[in-house]
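Biotinidase
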Amino acid sequence: MGDIDPCKGKPGCPPVGHLQFNTNVVFDRDGTLLVRYRKEHFWYEYAMDLPRHKQNPKFTTDFGTFLSYVCYNILLERIVEVEKEDKVDGIVFSTMWENTMPLGMTVDYFQSWAMGNNLTLIAADIQLPGQRAVGSGIFHGSYGALAYTFNPDGISRLIVARVPRKNYALTEPKSSITAVLQNGTTFDYLFEGDHVETEGSENILPHWQNYYQDDRYHVINMENFTLVKITEPSGRIPPTT
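Predicted structure tokens:
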């Protein structure tokens, strides 16, 4: 959300008389504000200001302790520093993540991050397929993706999953995805992917017709990458030539 902080008369205050931040807020079931996190590292956000102090965006609920972060910050060391300072069960993470193959795909990266750090990651990406921004879900440190969506149709979704506490077994997996339309209509989203083309190229597809619903292909340079299928839970990958 946009967050405006009046600062008129204070040192470093801009001429407009306020600072503005890219901000996450978390409320409890009663509507009480639990934590506010102002994004600390920008990705071409020229209209926003940086927070003046380091933050520890931790909040505790009756089902665990979490941190709240925004987008690009998940790639940086700071999130790991804070996570290791206290006992944390997971990260609540909002983003406008543009999918970039082969290493920057949302669902792939989010699941890898969760399992690599043994934390639950609740990731909410904006639905903007025309800018390759799509892919949200709930990812567990041991079980990987509990529920996720990666559908470039411009439809918002509410993702719900049963998440076991850290180091506990997932005895009864349960999840659901509910589509939420702009007019407030909701329905259970049951998608099997039958209509998705298996092959495509930007050379044969026209430019997107709807920025909010169409996803288009992009060419990637794979010269510096070697893809190897991983078949074991651990071990070493032999060098390739």
